Amino acid sequence: MSKKTYFFLILILGSLTALGPFSIDMYLPGFPAIANDLHTTAAKVSLSLSGFFIGISVGQLLYGPLLDRFGRKKPLYIGLIVYILASAGCAFTDSIDGLIVMRVIQAIGSCAAAVASVAMVRDLFPVKDNAKVFSLLLLVVGASPMIAPTVGGYVTAAFGWQAVFIILTGMGVAILAAVFFWLPARYKPDPSISLKPKPILLNFWSVLREPQFYTYAFTGAIAFSGLFAYVSGSPILFMEVFHTDEKVYGWIFAFLSVGFIGSSQVNTLLLRTYRSDQIVNVALVCQVIVALTFLTVAINGWLTLPITLVFLFLFLCCIGFTNPNASALSLAPFSKNAGSASALMGALQMGMGTLISVIISLFEVPSAIPMVVGMAGSATLALLVLLMGRRTITTQVDLQQGADTVVLH
């Protein structure tokens, strides 16, 4: 594969992967404006974020079997069209309930892009390159929290929050065109895969029974839910506790995302020397230490804006190491049903994220405590799952120094 082709594939797959994060991050600065226009509260508006997470969780399980049965592109076309229509619906809704419903539908459309992009990493690149490709995708995805909230803040201030969803509609159209004209389809559809509920459930169960999958998929999903705690709690934290405006909030969000992006790229360098499971172990321990220290400081009332930024930056750095490696280790044992495996992995991530975001949205008191408790709890639980799950893995498929490696435990 030439460098030009490699770069182009990463760019398209990264755009697909970034569609969901852009849909999450770009409208966050508009929470107060949405609450004002739709005559509700910021906490109620945050339910539209939880609705988006619910839609992604459910939708990923739907698209997994479709991607394996019909190939990657046809279900992807359908998902992107649903996303485009729902994004337009969000722009023209006149009630908070309507916005929540449209966000759920928008998420169901966007998750086709998320599942397809992960599965196509397994289709288009050799297994030994998967962790590296996931890190590169995180670089593209990582641009979304840098660009989306900042642009969203300025767009909301200048044109209103509805303009954000009009821009998202245009993005969906552009990505659909790129997929149609330039993304190759290397995976051969498998007609033997049934779409009946029982075979689908059995297929997911066969994936879930793989010790390496459930250990690293659950570990990664729970650890990654700390990011959802941050995303759900940050609008209230920064705009109501620290009283920043939409533009400043966008720049803060962009700054913090540098930690997530930077660590995911340092990860590609570490993979030349260390195995993915070794990186996950160290990064997750660091994530627990940072989160528990953050919680201690918050409970004692010592938080200031600079201290909060430092802890959030370090926490996101840890996630930048854990997520790509946990994802690669989860999918490594699969080839034939990589679509189902990636869908199940994504559903677990979004399911955990939905749960923690809903819980945080229930606390309407402006405080950092709910967010920090969610971050600390997710990191600690993920480490416990990893320690227990590793005992069940007897033969681990891993990646080391450019070669497929089997690690015996």
Can you identify the CATH superfamily? MFS general substrate transporter like domains
Give the oligomeric state. single chain
- Rg of Cα set: 20 Å
CATH class: Mainly Alpha
Structural class: mainly alpha
Estimate the mean pLDDT confidence. Answer: 86
Low-confidence stretches are 400-409
- The outline comes out as globular
Number of strands: 2
- The helix tally amounts to 14
Write the element-wise H/E pattern from the N-terminal end onward: HHHHHHHHHHHHHHEE
CATH topology: Growth Hormone, Chain: A
Strand order of the largest sheet: 1-2
For the record, give the distance between the C-alpha atoms at the N and C termini, rounded to a whole number: 34 Å
Helix content: over 70%
Molecular structure report:
Keywords: Cell membrane, Membrane, Transmembrane, Transmembrane helix, Transport. It is found in: Cell membrane. This is Multidrug effflux MFS transporter. Belongs to the major facilitator superfamily. Bcr/CmlA family. Its main location: membrane. 79% of the residues lie in helices and 3% in strands. The chain has 409 residues and is an all-alpha fold. It has a single domain, classed as Growth Hormone, Chain: A (Up-down Bundle), CATH 1.20.1250. It has a two-stranded antiparallel sheet with strand order 1-2. A hairpin with a 2-residue loop joins strand 1 and strand 2. The two termini are 34 Å apart. The C terminus is likely disordered.
